[in-house]
Amino acid sequence: MKVFQHVQDIGDLSVALAEAQEVKRDRYQWQHLGKNKTALLIFFNNSLRTRLSTQKAAMNLGMNVIVLDVNQGAWKLETERGVVMDGDKSEHLLEAIPVMASYCDIIGVRSFARFESREDDYEEKILQQFIQYSGRPVFFMESATVHPLQAFADLITIEENKTNARPKVVMTWAPHPKALPQAVPNSFAEWMLAADVDFVITHPEGYELDPQFVQGARVEYDQMKAFEGADFIYAKNWSCPGVTRPEAYGKVLEDYHTMMDWCVSTRQMAVTNDAAFMHCLPVRRNMIVTDDVIESPRSLVIPEAANREISAQVVLKRMLQAL
Ligand code: CP
């Protein structure tokens, strides 16, 4: 595997899920693969889970790990060509990428949507430069549009906890005071549509996700109706994707105080099939989900986060095997 961005990059999902369970049975059995190999994890944005779980996965495989927080201690990087660099950015990504690549064998990058231009975000301008100029396998640790390590961990969690062959999985928008990217819902939709689940998305009008990720998904604007009979509830906020309202790309469409009915509570969970609750974390309690739902025995947020180590290890293992 040279690039890990989309669900297609992992190949057959049943094979990937079986491999995830093999990793869980003994995560240290491939230490020889990572001997004298280095993973460089580059963060343009904050992280808790991705940072720790990916480091742990690389160490499980016997790799050395270097973590770089670009905005804390490194030179500020210019990302656009043609810019007269007379501002606060001292180095260009086009020099920095090959230099960083010379110190490692595999690169992971986190670089969120900037919300300055939908076109730039959806073209993945930063990550594409790493793919083009590093000469190394590159995996996405949440980019402007996707978070595949999260979606793979989510699928592992659903597979481990489902009680019927084809569970109903509902992804619901929930309120948030800030404008958040669409990377998590995009990837979750992409992976659920490739998996054997009955997938439904519910959100207020105006939050329609990009068709490249949700083509074929059922959208139900009535949240209570969407929740009926659900086996898994996956909550997430996202800002306006700019599909039906291009002028509002990256914006919160309404004052969140008026949207609090969308916060996942026992009211909505009561119409489900005793659904499990999922969220990628970090989560704002009593905005996205109430205390009692996230603390209930049906909450999977902790095992879901633990599975981030497993999804990262499957991806790194495959990249090492292809070096
Ligand atoms: N879910 C997730 O990616 O968490 P972090 O932002 O803490 O890495």
- CATH H-level superfamily of the largest domain: Aspartate/ornithine carbamoyltransferase
Estimate the global geometry from the Cα principal axes.
Answer: globular
Q: Label the structural class.
A: alpha/beta
Mean pLDDT: 97
What is the CATH topology descriptor of the largest domain?
Rossmann fold
Bound molecules: phosphoric acid mono(formamide)ester
Q: List the total number of helices.
A: 13
- Helix share, percent: 25-40%
- Main sheet? 5 strands, parallel
* Cα-to-Cα separation, first versus last residue: 9 Å
The ordered H/E elements are EHHEHEEEHEHHEHEHEHEHEHEHH
Low-confidence stretches: none
Q: Into which percentage range does the β-strand content fall?
A: 5-15%
Q: Give me the Rg, rounded.
A: 20 Å
Give the spatial strand order of the biggest sheet.
1-7-6-2-3
Describe this structure in words.
- By secondary structure, this protein is an alpha/beta fold.
- The protein has two domains: 3-146 and 308-322, Aspartate/ornithine carbamoyltransferase (Rossmann fold, 3-Layer(aba) Sandwich); 150-304, Aspartate/ornithine carbamoyltransferase (Rossmann fold, 3-Layer(aba) Sandwich), CATH 3.40.50.1370.
- Helix content is 36%, strand content 15%.
- It contains 13 helices and twelve strands.
- It has helices at 13-25, 31-34, 49-60, 93-101, 118-122, 125-134, 148-161, 183-194, 211-214, 223-227, 266-269, 291-294, 301-321; strands at 3-4, 38-43, 64-69, 77-78, 91-92, 106-110, 138-140, 168-173, 198-202, 218-219, 232-236, 276-278.
- A five-stranded parallel sheet has the order 1-7-6-2-3, with helices on both faces. Strands 10-9-8-11-12 form a five-stranded parallel sheet. Strands 4-5 form a two-stranded parallel ribbon.
- Helix 1 crosses helix 13 (301-321), helix 3 (49-60) crosses helix 13 (301-321) and helix 4 crosses helix 6.
- It is globular.
- The model has no long low-confidence stretch (mean pLDDT 97).
